[in-house]
Design goal:
mainly beta, four-stranded antiparallel β-sheet, 3 helices, 40 strands, 3% helix, 51% strand, flat
């Protein structure tokens, strides 16, 4: 229930005019390494008592930019033909790997998967942090290295097969699957066609089946359990298996969430008339299915909704099922670092604030959009969603980076991607903590 809210900042990112003098922020076509703060941020940058300086350390120049991973950030730039190309910059803003790839993923375990050519005829390989191929382009599809292995496909979409390679490019599990997901907790979901129907199972890192193909849906393992489903649509029933492939929760619910703090949300009834409650690890329904929407437990509390999607109100319950914050919000997110984002009013013109576990406003609802706290910091949009600007606040609601950007992402490895200008001329750079 959070996805639309989290990404709604796109609405705020567009149509926002970021007025700035030429001496404030230099937006250039090629990467710059200057570390001088813009005039907009000069006061903040020179205030060493603040947790975040807000100093622009990489000038806004990219058409798209992603969080830093292992010291490098994936960026996108349009070439002279209007095609997006992918490259990588370091934390000085130096283009250490020029934008020459047609697709790329972020670095993980020292390698990044990259593709040259289009999605039909192009080939994927893996590069190191110098931009050199560690694994030559040869795959029709490739995922990032996760837990030391990467899922790759040989052959086209219709007839190709998936397997797993190590970071040297050697096949550890030969390509024989019709689909392969990433490894989590030592297991990966794979799919094969049986009598014309795609069925999922799980393999270990030696390619041995933990659970043979039998499921219509299969999700990643989390805390030793994986959510699986049998059937589809109105006949779908979901349960949980453990790392041996044994059912811990028999498939009986139209939907089941991942366990969090010992409880999992379940949908009881049918898709047309689904009520949500919570089960424990033994599968016992410990909180009655009376809610129209329900989130995961975080910090001992879960956001729940009573009433229909459009007019129902959100509140919070504890793990005993007791209402501790009465339903009063038009939207509510999970708690994070002791605070939860809530909204009063509609998605289009409502205002966001933050509450504590007692339901008290720590930050009154006055923000157009708001991210959850991460390391005591949150990106927020001030004003309205059509003309607002993004900045960063601390857990008391004080701006530590004043609202001035057309978009803002969370900090990663000490830097946050921020945008200036209005679409389609928006450019992305990075500010420091």
């Amino acid at each position: 229930m959070q996805v639309l809210e989290r990404h709604a900042h796109i609405l705020c990112s567009y149509l926002v005019l970021f007025l700035v003098t030429a001496s404030s922020i230099s937006v250039r076509a090629m990467p710059q390494t200057t570390r001088q703060p813009s005039k907009l941020n000069q006061t903040t940058a020179n205030n060493s008592s603040r947790a975040i300086t807000g100093q622009i350390v990489i000038n806004p120049q990219f058409d798209r930019a992603y969080p830093f991973s292992e010291g490098l950030a994936l960026i996108e730039l349009f070439d002279e033909n209007g095609n997006l190309k992918y490259g990588f910059v370091n934390k000085l803003g130096e283009m250490v790997i020029p934008p020459k790839f047609d697709k790329a993923c972020r670095f993980q375990s020292g390698l990044a998967c990259v593709r040259t050519g289009d999605g039909k005829t192009g080939a994927w390989g893996f590069i190191d942090k110098y931009g050199h191929y560690a694994i030559e382009p040869q795959f029709s599809e490739a995922h990032r290295l996760v837990e030391g292995l990467a899922a790759v496909r040989i052959g086209n979409v219709q007839q190709g097969k998936w397997g797993y390679i190590d970071k040297t490019g050697k096949f550890v599990i030969n390509p024989k699957y019709d689909f392969a997901a990433d490894f989590t907790e030592g297991a990966a979901a794979v799919a094969v066609f049986i009598d014309g129907e795609r069925k999922f199972g799980y393999v270990d890192k030696f390619g041995k089946y933990i659970a043979p193909p039998q499921f219509d849906q299969a999700n990643d393992f989390s805390n030793g359990l994986a959510r699986v489903c049998i059937g589809a649509g109105s006949t779908q029933r979901c349960g949980m298996i453990d790392r041996t492939g044994r059912y811990v929760i028999n498939p009986q619910y139209p939907f089941i969430g991942q366990f969090s703090e010992g409880l999992a949300m379940v949908c009881v009834g049918t898709w047309a008339n689904c009520r949500r409650g919570y089960i424990d690890i033994k599968g016992k329904l410990v909180i009655d299915a009376v809610y129209d929407s329900a989130g995961a437990f975080k910090d001992g509390l879960a956001a729940v909704q009573l009433g229909d999607h459009n007019s129902g109100k959100y509140g919070y319950i504890n793990k005993a099922g007791k209402t501790v914050i009465s339903p009063q919000f038009d939207f509510a997110e999970d708690f994070s670092e002791g605070l939860a984002v809530v909204r009063i009013g509609s998605l289009q013109d409502g205002k966001f604030g933050y509450i504590d576990p007692a339901g008290n406003y720590v930050i009154a609802p006055h923000l157009a959009l708001a991210h959850t706290l991460k390391n005591g910091i949150a990106a927020v949009c001030s004003g309205d969603q059509n003309s607002g600007k993004w900045g960063f606040i601390d857990r008391k609601g004080s701006f530590i980076v004043e609202p001035q950007f057309s978009s803002a992402e969370d900090f990663s490895e000490g830097l946050a991607a921020v945008g200036v200008g209005i679409s389609p001329s928006t450019k992305i750079g990075y500010i420091s903590r």
